[in-house]
Amino acid sequence: MQNKIQVHLSPEERAQKVAELVEHIINGGSLHGWCEENVPWATVWGWMSADPKVCEAVRNAQVGSSWRRVEEMMAIADDASEDYTWVTDEDGTKRLILVKENIARSRLRCDVRWKLVAALAPSIWGTKLAISGDPNSPITVVSMSDAEREHKIRKLLNKAVGRPAKNRLNGNGAESDDENGPVE
Known about the structure:
The protein is mainly alpha-helical. The protein has seven helices and five strands. It has helices spanning 11-26, 31-37, 41-50, 52-78, 100-120, 122-125, 146-161; strands at residues 84-88, 94-98, 168-169, 175-177, 181-182.
């Protein structure tokens, strides 16, 4: 189907198109692919921008399709049917060889799907970072002014480059002692 700009859709027609789009996405299709065949991307974007319910329906469909993509990854990883092939040597001997290109392609297909599901549903599939500490001494967040932050950074940098306390530079390029201010 030609990608035609559909400016005037009735609310019923639009609801029908959104339902088709959501079904397409849940069944493993892409928003881009559906737009190529049905309604231009700009029109769909306009629907999503104007109506939070449309945006939420499309988003929920994408999250739901992430489970399908994970199952696809499992099937791709489990399928070894193209990983080996028989070749016949010049002397007529047959031997089984590993087809590294097929394995690389399978890995790429899984990696792309993994990145997609991590982006579509980060709370489910994204990388999680756990920060923990001593229960008796919990992690605290300290707020600092810009001047305090700058002083702390300068102190760490001076320490990292090994400047003696009396030869350290302050923010103005003058020598200072971090504890007592400018060196006289």
